[in-house]
Predict the 3D structure of the following.
Amino acid sequence: VHQQIDIQNGPVVHLLFDPETANEANWELLKTDYLQRYFDFMAAHFGRYPYPQFSIIQGGDGGMEYPMCTMILGGGDKFEGFTGLFVHEATHNWYYGVLATNEAAHPWMDEGFTSYAEEECMNVLFEHNVENPHLRAYRSYVYLDTSGLREPLSTPADHFNYNMVYGINSYSAGALFLNQLEYIIGEEAFARGMKRYWNAWQFKHPTPYDFLRIMERESDLELDWYLSYYKDQVKSIDYSISEVSPVMNGTTVLFERKGKFPMPLDIEVV
């Protein structure tokens, strides 16, 4: 089956699937308004898709991105899982496809940035409306950090000792690089920076330092320390309450930095 959908202010989307093996209901539901909302969300937050067409093709094993198309299984029962796979693989067209970062040298700038955008988008598409949609990435990161197997984010893709470490580093830690950066510089500067990165570096193969300079300009902050700690080291962000003491008309709470990765903290007192 070949179906065609015209996205307003976006590409023509082609759906190609086998009705005998695909879950046809998922493919039909995807084209109702999910496709339009996906391209609208990406344009608003990360940059407008620059090509005249995009194809979603049933085939392969799992999902795989290609320029102007993605191949996905397309036969699963759960619509949200089907859509999440499409969103992830399609979003690669922004980071590996158009910005075209070096996937061998900096896999986290493709898989991680794609995963960050995917979770942000899915949070809106399915109206989960959670405050931070990256909790799964945090759980994976903590697991890796406590496993004793963690390697620097700067490790080339084919130099990791374990595939599991490559996966968590590239997907989860890469996504959290953006989430933590957003926490440091603020939501507004971060949002401006992501759009400026897209506009300034399309088809130019940016490095981590190119991205960093964009964020420094938007935030008016020096961020070399953050990139160095996050990318090149395996130190942890770990703060705890070390002491609570009653005082006249109140309480003194002493915080301790247990990890070696410094991070500004917002403390909420309730």
Notes: The first strand starts at residue 2 and ends at 6.
